[in-house]
Records
---
Amino acid sequence: MDSHAGLEPVTASSETDVVVVGAGMVGLLAALSLAKRGMNVTVIDDVVHQKPSYKVGESFLVSTGVPRVIGELDDFLNDQCFVKLGVWFTYGMQGEREFRPKSEWVVAAMSEFTLQEMSDDHRDHYLYQQAKDKLAFRSLAVDQQICRPDTEDLLRKTVHSKPSIRFLDTARVTDVEIAGSDTETHIVTWTDYNADTQGSVHTRWVIDCSGRSRMLATKLGHRAESRVLDDGFQTTALWGQFSGITDEMFEPVWRYTTEDGTSTRRDMFTLHLWGEGHWIWVIRLAGGRVSVGITYDQKKLPEQGSPREKFFAALAAYPVFDGVISQDNLLEFRMYRNVQHVTDTFVHPKRYAMIGDSSSIIDAYYSQGLGQSFQTMWHVTNIIEKDITHTTLDTGYIDRVNKATFEDWLIIRNFVREKYTGAVADPRFFLLSHLLDWVVIWSTGTARFRWTNWLAATGGDASKEDAVGKRARKFCETHLFYSKGQPWHWLPEQVVRRRLERFQSKLGERARWRIEHGITGPTVFCQLSLTRCLPSIWRLLGKPESARVDISGPDFVAPRELRKPWARSWVNAIPLTASQRFLLVLKLRAPLLATLFLACYALDAADTTWHKAQHLFRSRRPRQL
C-alpha cells in the first residue's frame, strides 16, 4: 500500500529572481551563470528519479569557455575527457574497407596534426606555451568530447554547493503562469515526485531549459516549425553509444599519412561520413566508449526494418566499422524522428526565455547545439542582470538576440540542406560548400576571442570587469552571432542569411548538373586549422579526374622549424611573434576566406556555364551520316 495514500499534500511558496526549468547540462550552466552575477536562482527538475541515459550531444566545437569557467569543469575537461583534434569530413566510404574517399575536408584544432596521439598534451603546443592566459586559450582552442552523465553529475554537485541556488531535484514543474504586468511576478507551480509536496515559486524571470518537451514554446505559442520547415526538409537521427573501444581497433585502417610523413588517425577527430541522403558521426569518448549516429533526410530514410535494424544495416554498408562496433557492445540506442525545430522567440520582454533544445535544434553537423545554447545563455544572462541589478529592461538587446539567433538557426540549417542532396558526391561542391561553412563559423573569430578572454578574466562575474572587459562585453553583445559576423556585420541579419542560402543553393544546383552529365574532378584533400586558414585551391588547376590533390595551405603562425620549407622564408619575413601572428590570423581569416570563396564561386559558375554551352552545342549539332 502507498504510504502517502490519504495524506493531504504539503504546500510551500517562495520567491526568487530566476527559475530555471530543467537540470540538464544547459539548465545547470544557466543557473550557475546567473548565480555568478549575484542572482538568486531556483532550479526545478526531478533528476533523482530520471531513467539513466548516456545522452546524445557529446561534442564541442570552439565552445568550451562556458563549461570551463561557468561550470568550473576545466580540470575535468583537461584530465578526464577525450581531447579531440578537430573535425574530419569525408564522402565516398560506402562499401570501402580502407579510407579512400573521393573528398576529405579537415579542420584541425591547432595545426599540422600537432597532437597526433591520445598521449600527447595540448599543453606542449607552442601556442599554448606562449599564451598569457592559459584558461582563455583552452576555452578558445581546445575542444573535448564528453560523457554527458559524468559531466552533468559534476555540474549538479556544483549547483548544490552554491548558496544562492535552490535545487529542487525531486520535483517537476506542472504549470507556469506568466505575469500580466511589470509589477507582478511569474508563478511557477511544482509537484514533488511522491506527490506529497507541492509548491509555487514567485519569480521575476523564468528560463525554460526543459529540452525537447518545450514547455514554454508550446504553452505560449512560440513553436515556429510550420512557418520555417515548409520546404519539406526534415531529418531523422538514429544513435547508439558503444563500449569496449580501444585505439588498436582503428589501426591501421583509420590512419591518415600526409605526403611529408606526418600522420594521425581519423577517430581522433569528430568524424563525419557522408553518403547519399545521410551522414554518420563518430565521436570517441573517455572510458573506452564511442558515440555513433546517423542522420537522414526523412525522404531517404530506409522503409524496411525497425529503427534499430535500420541503424545497424546502415553501418554494415561501411566496412571500416568492422571489428569496432556491433550489437554486442551497444550500451544504448535511440531514435529522434523529427530532429529539427525552432521557436520564433528566445527571450521575451515579458521576462521569460527558452534556451537549448527547448528553443531550437538543427542538426548534429558541426556540433553546434551546445555552442549555440551557451551563446544564447550568455546573452540572456546579460539581459537578466541588467533588468534585476540595474533595473533596465534592454528591449533593444532582446530584439537583437531574437532576430540574430533565429537567423543563425536558419544559417546553420543551410549548412547541411544541400549536402543531403546528391550534390555532395561532386568533389568541387564538397570543397566549396564546406569552404563557405567555415567562412561563417570563422566570421565570429574576433568576438569569440574577446568572449573567451572575458570569461577567463571575470570568471563569469560582470562585477569583476575592467575597462577592457567592459568593451569586450559590449562588442560581443552585438557581434557574437553568425548573422552579425565580421565580413557582413553592417548588413541586416535576414539579408546575410538569404545571401548565404543562395550561395549554397546555386553550388548544389551546379553540382547536380555536373553529376548528371558525367563531369567530375580530382579527389581532393584539404586541411585547415586555427593557423592554416587558406587552402591552396590553385593546385587543382589542370589536374585530371584520376589525380588526388592535397590543397592544404601554409601555416601562417608556426615557428620556422615547424613550417614546410617552401613557406619558411616568406612567413618568417612577417616581423611578429607566433602569438602576434595568431591574433592577426584570427582577425583576418574570415575576410580572406570569404574573398577566396567568392572568387571560387565565380569560377565555378563560369566553368559550369561553359560546360553547359558545350553540352548544348553538341546536342544541337547535326549527326554525321
Note: The first strand starts at residue 10 and ends at 21.
---
Amino acid sequence: MGTAPDSVIRDTEGRTVWDLDAYGFLAQECPDTANPSLWRQSRLCSDHGLFEVTDGIYQVRGFDLSNMTLVEGERGVFVIDPLLCAETAAAALALYRAHRGDRPVTGVLYTHSHADHFGGVRGVVTDEDVAAGVPVLAPRGFLEHAVSENVYAGTAMNRRAAYMYGAALPKGERGQIGAGLGQTTSTGAVGLIPPTADITRTGQTERVDGIRMVFQLTPGTEAPAELNVHFPERAALCMAENATHNLHNLLTLRGAQVRDPRVWSRYLTEAIDLFGDFTSLAFASHHWPVWGRDRVLRFLSEQRDLYGYLHDQTLRLLNQGRTAAEIAETIELPPALERAWHTHGYYGSVSHNTKAVYQRYLGWFDGNPAHLWEHPPVESARRYVAYMGGADAVVRRARQSFADGDFRWVAQVVHHVLFADPDHAEARELQADALEQLGYGSENGTWRNFYLMGALELRHGSVGTPTSTVAPDLLAALTLEQVFDSLAIRVDGPRAWDADIAVRFLLPGGERITLRLCNGVLTHVLGSGPAAAEPDAEITLTEADLRAVLLGGVTPSDLAAREDVKVTGDIGALTGLLGYLGAPDPDFAVVTP
C-alpha cells in the first residue's frame, strides 16, 4: 500500500535507529560473496511498507526485525507486537494512519516475551492511555520471562546478539545482508508497559474494540511465554513466532534456555486441530502471510514435522552413542521438507538445533572422560600450539589449508594460535579471512553475521553492543525478588568470601526483608524466621526508596539523611554490602581471550 516518505527513522537526538533504504543493494543479482538462498530470503525480508493481509488486518513489515500487525476494530486499531523500539513502532503506526486514517490504538497484544515483540510499545500507547482503559494483553508468565531473560543474562545476550544480528556490520554484499528472520535489530529506545490482562488458558476468548479473539497458549515453544491467536470473523490465524518462513532456533546463538521441539511440534498439531477448519490465512510476527486453507494446513504441517523430525532423530542417534557434533554432521531433512523454502535454515540451522536437542537431554558432557576436565581455552591453546611446532608453523600450514578451501579447519586451528598469542598479526588476518569466507558461503543469516562480526573485530577491534534490552522499563518491572536475584549475580564472590553483612528493610504494611552477604552469596529472607540473621542495620523506608538504593538511584548515605527514612544501626553496612557488587562488561572479547 506504500511506505514511509522518509527512509531514515531517527531518535529524539537525531541518531539513526533504522534505515529503510539500507538494503537497496539486494535488488541486484546475488554476488559471489553471499549464499544465493540467503540473498533471496533477505530480499524478501527487506521489502518494507504497509501491507494488507485481509480486510481489516494490516502489517507494517521491514521497519524492524519483526512485523507490527494492526487489526481494525469498531473505534480504532488493535496493535499486535509493537516492534523492538519506540521510534520504529511510532513510524509504523504513522504509516498505517497515513493510509487508513488517524484511528486511536484501542488495545495491544504481546504474543510472547522477546523484546522485538514488546520493546516499541511506547511508540503506540502511553501510560496515560493504558490507565484510561486501553488494555495490554499477554500470555501467562510474560512479564516474568520478559524481565528475567533481558536482565539476568541480558549483558551477555546483548553482546552476543551484536554478533548474531550484525547491527554494527556495514550493509552490503560483503557485509550484513540480513538475519533470516528479519534484517537486523533497530537501535532505538526499548520500553515495556506491563500487561493489564493475562491470557491464561487455551480456548480463552476476549473481545477488544469489537474484535473477537480466541487464544492458544504455547509455552515452551519459541519463547517460554507465547500464544497464537485466531480471529474467527476474519478466518485469520496469527502464529506469533511459532511458524515462520524459516527453520527457527531451538537454541538461539545469542544464548537462551533450550526450547522444546517436541512440545513445539505438538502445539502446531493442536493449532491445526483447533483452527484449521476455520482458517483461510495465517500470518506471523515475522515474514509474510500464507493464504488459502490448503496452503495454510500444508505450511503448518510441514513446520510441525520439521521440529518433530529434528527432535526424534537427534534422540535416535544419541541413543546410539553419537555425540552432538556427530549428530549435527549426520542429520539431513527429508526431501519433502528440504524442498519447502520455509524449512530452510536461514535463522536456525539443522546443525546447531540438533546440538540444542542433545544439550536439552544430556547437557554439555558427551560422556567421554577425556572431555571431563579439559584445560580452559588459553591453556589448551598454548599447549596445542607448542605441540604443533609454534605459532608460525601453525599459520604456515593453515595458509595451505586456506588455499585448499578448507576454511572451516583454518578457523578451528588458527583459533588456538590467537588464544595462545592474541597479538600474532598474521594469525589475526588469516583468521579474519577464513571467517569471512565461511560467512560468504552461509545460507544461515545469523551464521554469516557471526562470522563477519568475528572478522570485523579481529581487524578493527570491538564494536561493543549496539542494542541493549536492559532498559529502565524492564528494571522497573522487576519484582523485589528479581531485584535481589539481579544483585546476587553481581556479587564478586572471591572478594566477598570473608564478608558477613546483614541489612533488614522494613516496608509499609509491616513487610520485613533481610539481605545477608555471607560466604560470597547474597541471600534474601522474607519475615523474621530463623533464616533471617540479626541485622547490622535496620532501615524503614518505602518500596520505591528500597528499589532506588539497590539499583543505584540514590546512595545509602543520601537515603539515610532523609527525614522519612529511619535507620537503626550503621548505614555503612548497606554501603559495604553494595560495595561488593561488580558491573557486567558489555564489551567482553569474543574471538580473542
Note: The first strand starts at residue 8 and ends at 10.
